Known about the structure:
The chain is of the alpha/beta class. It contains five helices and five strands.
Amino acid sequence: MSQIMVLNGPNLNLLGTREPDQYGNETLADVENNCRATAQQYDHTIDFRQSNHEGSLVDYLHEANEKFKQGELIGVIINPGAYTHTSVAIHDAIKGIEPPVIEVHISNVHARESFRHHSYVSPVAAGTLIGFGTKGYDLAIHSLLMK
């Protein structure tokens, strides 16, 4: 049984209460439960994490690399939140690791403020899912399993 690491960046712990018109009413716990159910259909497990701290996300990516090298992990799904648009550190961490990384955004960032149109993550991600709501996480799981 292999694992998929799902990482969530700043403010995603507020899902369900923060801007529900933009992000919907599902909580991060709902997203986690859906990810676990989707992965379980394929005999995979989910390592689900959230941090408001950039360095913690970098550490998690490094940990994912070690798990990948040991054959315990097949890939990473990351919703970097606002760090998408600011973090060279997360860009470099993804660029420096071996497992495929799928970038997910709940809202369509390209239909929002112009500063959200640029991603430091997209150029180093294996793929990007934008604007599918929380279903983007399920689509990302399916895409990792198809590789």
